[in-house]
User: Fold these one by one.
Assistant:
Number 1:
Amino acid sequence: MLKYIAKRLLSSLLTLFIIIVVVFVLLRQMPIEGYFDNFDKLDAKQVDAKLTQLGLKDPIYKQLWSFFKNLFNGDLGLSSRYSKDTPITTLIANKAPLSIYMGLMSLAISLALGIPLGAAMARSKSGFWDKFGTVFIVFINAVPAAVYYIFIQMYGTDAMRIPMTFSRDNWLTWILPVVSMSLGSIASNAMWLRRYMLDEMNKDYVRLARAKGVSSRKLMMKHIFRNAFVPMIQYIPASILYTVSGSIYIESLYGIPGMGGLLVDVIGRQDNPMVQALVMIYSSIGIIGLLLGDLLMAVLDPRISFVKKDGAR
Amino acid sequence: MKGLFENKKRRTEDSLNAALKQKQYDEDAYFERAEYDPFAGEKAGYSDYSYWRSTFKSFLHNKVALIMLVVLAVLVLFTVIQPLLPGQYDALTINNDPVTGIQLQNQAPSSTTVYMTVPAGTELLGARVKGDEGWYAVSNIIGAVKKPTKKPSTFTVLEYGEDWCKIEYEGVTGYIMNNFQTSIQKIPEDPYAVPYECYSNKAPKIFNAPVNISNSGNSLYAEAQYLRETEDGTVVTTAETELRNIPSSQPFLFGTNNIGQDLWALVWQGTRTSLWIGFVVALFEALIGIIIGVLWGYVRALDRLITEIYNVIDNIPTTIILILISYIMRPSISTLIFAMSLTRWLGMARFVRNQIIIIRDRDYNLASRCLGTEPSRIMLRNLLPYLVSVIMLRMALAIPGAIGSEVFITYIGLGLDVNTPSLGNLINEGRKLVTSPSLRYQLIFPAIVLSVITISFYVIGNAFADAADPKNHL
């Protein structure tokens, strides 16, 4: 067990390192206008001077080294265009809490609605709930999120008679963003739970339990659901972590001052240091989330650490 | 107890012996000797099963998918032939009013653009005719009104409204605007007590119906060939003439956008772009995914290396890679295709690899190898045919996925510019107008077309995967 955890931890750290290096090198190719707040007014000499001052003319390994040194001191650099010369960590610390609140709310909704839906679908195979759920899942998976988000915003705010933009004090304006954010995860929770439950239902131990006369309700709850839910737990840590990043669509649609909208903003203004910091944060979150998920699974399901071999997940 | 058992045993033996005896004696009664039949001999080795026919058959059982297939086929076909149809506007042409030169922006979608039909001999005010071709702006004021004079003209008010009054003037009944172009003089204390006489300093311009001047303008268009200019400078119709909202007999089916481009043409042009991106991405996904997947699964030496590369790329969120690549490279169709292909092959490669590991060491492959078949031939002929159904599924799902990614990238401002219409930027342009309900059609039309395409591909892909799974074959 410990050996597995140590191995998994090490490989995650290595991956994280590789990704930061790759992203760092890729981002050196960014259009250089993004390092200035007044690029058009500068001549070549001034541009050169500023690039040297920022250390962008150094060899790449030197830049990387100073980046890592700063990273360990909790310094991600200064914003160039979005909010001139403000530390990026401050900006993010201001933006992240709202994204986390909303993300956690929508996570709660998606679990509270998605899991019962998936269970109902598995129970009534080709009954009403199965058909209803299938139509819902197909719609959510097939139609690009941007499209139904816009429609929800457009008709939802009309129906509720509230303004289209979010305001922190009016709780009515929280409803639509949080609900739209959870739709995708409701669909995927329901879809995977249904699939796992149907897989479990065909197993021998279920047949045996049925033959013994276990009631259908008890069989569903105690035998099938529990086993089917285990593989889903793996993704919960990642989902919690991802609330930090916020939803890019939702936040910029409703004008929510969170992290997701921030990424769109800084891309629009070509603020290179900000883009770099956010991209790195987002990719690290993905890796850490997966790592935590795997560790959680290893704790919950002892088979994993023995059986799992190196290879693609 | 023991006796009972013995008894049972004896009875069983007896019945077995009896059956045996009967069999010996009655064999000829039950069986018939078959003659040698060469055709029947041929039949023995024949099975009616064909993979593709069974796949096709079980696909046909799925009615929803079948309907979607027809819808999609019609849609794709129409998208391809749309520019060849007669009377289509060019997508990028900005349509201007021929007289004023103002862009025909935000024209509401309409199936017919005929506003009214006037009989021959109607005098059209506000028209200028210079030739017999094209369209001319006229006002929607009915004729029979003399040219404005300085003399006050007297008319009878039949209905009084805040904006519009219905009047009778020299035998013509129609509407005038209240206190605008015609200032009505001498209004009685209770103006609603009609009828009464009034006068105006100018001859009133009479409209045949109240119109919203501010919105559609009081310009209508008539075709030049039906107009004639008289000696005193007025323009009259020579035949029954249709007055249209737009200077063309071709209506804008989906209306126009905010710079006067035809939304109908834009939507189909955009569908072509998006489908093209989707197809190319699907093709690249298949190509890269299969090559890497086969190498990954079949060549043991590469397993470790590709697995590590896979883990690194797979750990970065797909959207981040998309954003990163689009940010570094300039927005264009090839950038989008490159950015999407960079991540999409992962799923395909992993799947191909897993399948290949399962079937690579089956006996027929071992036999093939022992007989000295080249690895490339084993891969192409022995392994790949097993994967066809799933490759097709993933390609079908890649198309809605790519279209969705394109919408996303455009949404965050890194997509194609408006001179390359795509469903993504049409939706993005439409999104900016949602605050005014009368312009929402500019979002709704592209969104509907996009949803139909993505849902169809998704449903068909899944139905095909079900049908192609031999477990579901009869």
Number 2:
Amino acid sequence: MTSRECDHIWKMIHVAYGYIITEKCSRCEIVSTYFSFEDLPPLEEYREGEHFWNVVESAQSFRFDFQCEKCGQLEKFDELMGLLMCTGCDKNCQVAKLQEILEKERTWVYVAFGFLPKANHIQLPAKKIGMLEDFFNHRRNSTDSRIKIVSQELVSDYSLCYGKVIKDVNMLCLTLPEEGA
Amino acid sequence: MKLQEIIEKLNLQPVTKVEEKNVQGVFISDLLSDVMTSANAGDIWLTVQTHHNIIAVANLVNIAAIVVTHGKKVPEETVSLGNRYHVIILSTPHSIFDTAAKLNATGLKSK
């Protein structure tokens, strides 16, 4: 059986934990993100070409590849920064409109984000977004509800999006136990 | 095992609406990355995290229910998202260790 004929069942392999580093240029304010295995990002401003980068955030995350359990085909996912669950905060956003339609069928929309700036990074192609969707729906093992994953290109205005890309940051906001607990 | 049976045996407090689900196993972690890579559909997830992204991850993996331990208060934003996405959140004043021990006694295992 060739990989083209295979009805793939993807498994997650080569899982590697690291950090998503977010930096901002102090001159032009452009934002850059990249994956790093280093737990300490550059703390001081550094120059790269015309940009002067300053760290905004370092968040624990992971990267992975997919391999088909049946035919062995390997697909790398280095282009994926993370997934964001649509909460429908901007009613004019294409993603929120899709969520509103699909929510009635208990289908939940997630956005696949690539690294920034978009012009400097290869973005996740539609074929791989489809693979992600297949993987999570197969793994969810449910006929009651489904996952729909779409490209970040559908997000109309990032400044109006209150959703957060899933990564381990700002998770340690300590709250006290309730009285009497 | 039915979720309602576990709720009764461990005296877990519902934080969101509860619907009947089958529980297959138990997963313990406070890292979203761990849940995304290693949890199984139908697992009960024990955590101290209450950030609203726990709903995003639990929904993605189809977690049977999140159990927030140590009596931590769950923010309204997280509760609201849980109700909307049919992700069940339960609460217990006990520690993760004690809760895991009680789940183990019911016959549930980590896969």
